[in-house]
Write a structure and sequence with these properties.
Layout (H helix, E strand, L loop, with lengths): L3 E4 L27 E4 L12 H12 L4 E4 L7 H4 L4 E4 L2 E7 L2 E4 L3 E5 L2 E6 L24 H13 L6 E4 L4 H6 L7 H13 L4 E4 L6 E2 L5 E3 L4 E4 L4 E2 L1
Parallel strand pairs: 1-2, 2-3, 3-6, 8-9, 9-10, 10-12
Antiparallel strand pairs: 1-13, 4-5, 5-6, 7-8, 11-12, 13-14
Length: 236
């Protein structure tokens, strides 16, 4: 049986040290049949001016004993990510960045390690004033109408019932009540459709740069922690 883990944003090489052997010694027990899911802002596919650095870190991940999965966040170079071809994998579509470094496309339900995961990456950047469209942020950070429709259709195929939800940002009820942030069309989709109609055990999200969970562990914001998923809970 595969072991399953989640962690928060990497931001390229900025936060990748949490995956070092020293920071996470438990990885020595893992194999390529075990999965670490990064909850957006992978960030290693970015500026072609730093292609050698990019290749170094992608190879570093490829040589890890586990398989790395990631969903896209808002700080991603979407045009470059979409240069990698779409491939069918475990119930949805993915892009293989390396043989064991894989991006999960938005709007699909993946069957991983005997569990079902609804994947819906993306988020609205709140720091656009300090970035440049087409160079350091891209409109594709937010899903298209087609992607929302795809997500709803794929959830319906599973009778709106999955084990886990993995996203970059969260639903309105979390971001407004807990974080005092403004809603947008993606957080509203999560609130009005996913939160209202989908049955799930736990929801994991990145984006917010800290670690916390609701008391019942149903909603989990993850940044530095690396959490192992269990049937009804997780362990660090």
């Amino acid at each position: 049986m595969s072991r399953l883990f989640v962690t928060g944003d990497l931001h390229g090489e900025i936060d990748i040290s949490k995956l070092s052997n020293k920071a996470w010694p438990q990885q020595k027990e893992l194999t390529k049949e075990d999965y670490l899911i990064i909850l957006g802002d992978f960030g290693l596919i970015w500026n072609e001016n730093f292609i050698n650095t990019e290749r170094y870190w992608l190879q570093w991940l490829e040589e890890k004993p586990f398989t790395t999965l990631f969903i896209p966040g808002n700080h991603e170079c979407y045009p470059r990510l979409r240069e990698y071809p779409l491939e069918s994998w475990n119930g949805g579509f993915v892009r293989h960045i390396r043989p064991s470094v894989i991006m999960l496309e938005r709007g699909y339900v993946f069957e991983i390690g005997g569990k079902t995961f609804f994947s819906m990456g993306g988020a609205r950047s709140t720091d656009k004033a300090s970035r440049v469209e087409g160079r350091t942020w891209w409109p594709e950070e937010m899903p298209s109408k087609e992607e929302y429709d795809l997500a709803a259709a794929n959830l319906e195929k599973y009778n709106n019932n999955v084990d886990y939800i993995i996203t970059h940002c969260g639903p309105n009820s979390i971001i407004e009540d807990k974080l005092k942030l403004e809603r947008d069309e993606l957080t509203t989709f999560f609130e009005n459709y996913v939160n209202k109609f989908v049955i799930f055990k736990q929801w994991f999200m990145g984006h917010y740069h800290f670690d916390c969970s609701t008391r019942d562990h149903k909603y989990n914001i993850v940044y530095d922690d690396i959490l192992e998923l269990k049937d009804n809970d997780f362990i660090i």
